[in-house]
Amino acid sequence: MTQVFDRIAIIGVGLIGASIARGAAEFGAAGSVALYDASEAARARLRELAIGEVFDDAASAVAGADLVVLATPVGAMGYALEAAAPGLKPGAIVTDVGSVKGAVISATNTHVPAHAFHVPGHPIAGTEHSGPDAGFSTLFKGRWHILTPLEDTRPEYAQAVDKLEAFWRALGANVERMDAERHDVVLAVVSHLPHLIAFNIVAMAEDLESVTESEVVKYSASGFRDFTRIAASDPTMWRDVFLNNREAVLEVLGRFSEDLAALQRAIRWGDGKTLYDLFDRARRMRREVIDAGQDTAAPNWGREN
Ligand code: NAP
Question: Most exposed: 60, 250, 270, 304, by fewest CB within 10 Å?
């Protein structure tokens, strides 16, 4: 048990926010937790779940908090902080968990008062579920948390970054620091593009007239179902990711489309060597993911069927 903060406040309490609230309590990272969500239904549910003190407005929720975590969809972060800002106490650390960093920093930074410290971040952890009930305390265990500190030369700023790092470590995360621009390109490759491809394949399969929907579902264990898991992620969250990481996604998507065209050509011309070499490289990448502890080596990905 490492208590890092006396009191934290979470604004936007769905999958990620509720996981932080549960983790902070279970691992003793915070003395107390204040919660605010814009949705009345979510606030009512949070009162039933009793994972923190629920407030009916953002400014009251953050009053007295040493750490404020914005965990709304990316497109709402600026509005969420604008509403909370009047309640921020001197020395408070403001962070967020947005999947995009450049655009979120632009939307939030102007609302951080001079007496607070702004340290953006992003946990590389999640599930396809959303809402307060989806949260669980061990979501961040063994996962990476990326901090994207700003250029703030105040000596206390470095201490604020260290403190926030200690908080995420207390929740079981491994922490790395990088600049926001790099974060957005890396995430476009490892997360945003794979999601876009999954959304597209699943929607395309539904549209295909030559196969009925029931056949797609019936034979889905041949590969399709793994795309459906990724494509089941929250539509609001993902709409905001693509609207807010446009440049990096378009850059990576351009490269992807070129490589796909090369594969198409190899299939058309019966170029087995090109196909084999690419599949072999891809398979080795899978090994690296397992060796890095990011997935299981169990047969069938640890599934029972
Ligand atoms: P979620 O389960 O949908 O929860 C977000 C909550 O924020 C909802 O209850 C939403 O209410 C509320 N909200 C919206 N606008 C608000 C505002 N202005 N003030 C206060 N609350 C507001 O979403 P999530 O999956 O936890 O994602 C939250 C953030 O984490 C996103 O920025 C996402 O990019 C990031 N993230 C997600 C994952 C993941 O796998 N899900 C992983 C890493 C990072 P309504 O439903 O009424 O809009």
Answer: 304
